[in-house]
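Lab notebook, bench 4. Still working through the backlog of constructs that have no structural model yet. Next entry is a single chain of 254 residues. Request: give me the structure tokens for it.
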Amino acid sequence: MTFDELWVNSPIVLRELAAEFVRRGDECLKADKESQLTACMFLALRSVSLLLGMAKVMEPETRDSWDVLARALQESTDLLMYFRFDEDGVRKKIEYWFAGKGDSAWKADHHKCEEFIRRLGEGETELAVRWSAMTVFSHPTVYAAQNSAKNVAGWVTGFAKTESPTDTILPKIADYLTSISKLMVVATFDLPGWVPLGFDLNRMPTADRFQRECKNVVGPILAMNQKITLPEGSYRSPSDKTARSAKVKKNPKG
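Model written out:
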């Protein structure tokens, strides 16, 4: 598939994912309403729902809304990844999650997920760093407010219509397509150490091909547009992580 073909096929892919997630989710829900499998199904379906919403606001004037949904999607797919670990500690957290208490049961253990991906030989994902940076634009920070002011001014003056789609929309489409591919991997792959979810890839032929071809096609575009432009100290940066690691090594007991 070409980039344009991936984009054109994305609604078909979401339809296939949604149908299979609903089918399998219904089986898991009937078997046990609060099992590890059911929790994963809920998060998979939430991820599809958010992706549907993101497609509706992929315009220069609505980029704020897109950013907020993108952050919510990452939280959902990251938590789904964490909930798939076949460990008693994870299942205990799922119990807290189902209880719906006002704590951080909804937040994935990014360190654990990053270590897992690293062991698979997939390199550095920086899930925690990207989550922190996206949080800056989903909360009413000074940077988010400035971003919104620029967006509204562009809409009022008409300047937004003159912006290059290559600069404003193309990176978001690339990120969107990659997010669909990520959901496919996190939800349907049965990797070592994960509980199998029992999805049938034969019911998702377009989605399966989409995932296999997405990385090579979208990767180069995404690589050029993933640089975080926020100032140091406004989010949890890689240097913060390095500094914390050095502090732990220097003072392991403190």
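Notes after review: The first helix runs from residue 3 to 31. The two ends are 53 Å apart (CA to CA). Flag for follow-up if needed.
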